Amino acid sequence: xxxxxxxxxxxxxxxxxxxxxxxxxxxxxxxxxxxxxxxxxxxxxxxxxxxxxxxxxxxxxxxxxxxxxxxxxxxxxxxxxxxxxxxxxxxxxxxxxxxxxxxxxxxxxxxxxxxxxxxxxxxxxxxxxxxxxx
Amino acid sequence: xxxxxxxxxxxxxxxxxxxxxxxxxxxxxxxxxxxxxxxxxxxxxxxxxxxxxxxxxxxxxxxxxxxxxxxxxxxxxxxxxxxxxxxxxxxxxxxxxxxxxxxxxxxxxxxxxxxxxxxxxxxxxxxxxxxxxx
Lengths: 134, 134
Prior knowledge:
The structure is a homodimer of 134-residue chains. Chain A has 134 residues and is an alpha+beta fold. Chain A has helices at 2-26, 33-41, 62-73; strands at residues 44-51, 58-60, 79-88, 91-100, 103-113, 119-125, 131-133. The longest helix of chain A is centred in the first third of the chain and has 25 residues, at 2-26. Chain A is globular. Chain A binds chain B through residues 12, 16, 53-56, 83-95, 106-108, 110, 124-127, 129-130, and chain B through 12, 16, 53-56, 83-95, 106-108, 110, 124-127, 129-130.
């Protein structure tokens, strides 16, 4: 029982580290977006799925996910503030505020992970009401 | 196409209303907890599932969910502040701060809904690192 708890605690720490890396890479200057897209793709499992926002296109596999991040981030400057990082039962939900192009967007990302703490799925919750013009 | 968008927008509004009702009921004085538990259970579909926190017990069906809320809320005073309400693709994620017994807990609830905008599933993300002693 104590072994299970130890593994579980280690896994929680690893998952929190991956989410923090994700949030750090998501904030970048316009020159750094391309490199951040490559590095963030490396956090995903080979067969991961990525849906942002939920209800939009679902990108399947790390190659498609890398392309999606390049489309979003190449040449784009954005700041990201971590509001709350919640890890439970080997899954994570994270509330961030993304500032770009004179807008602030409240986004809640929900992530699952494989046994190596690679991101197995990332689904982003945000809608028009979560976008504020600054 | 415009019909689909209209339905989708109406559904988004209905879902946001249900989540706001949920958050309002979650904040209550010690005398009001019991009534809030009954009223919140009425927001769930008959065959809904409730998991709080994720990794803990899963309560299946509105009867079991009603009992779970009575266990949590009867005779307990708590305040709830809405931090961010995110609706996308007919699902919702909501970041709230719950204040009770001298502690503040950042919770992210993720909900799905049936066709009548009843809650089909509610899964709550929070762990020890989300609890602050006031």
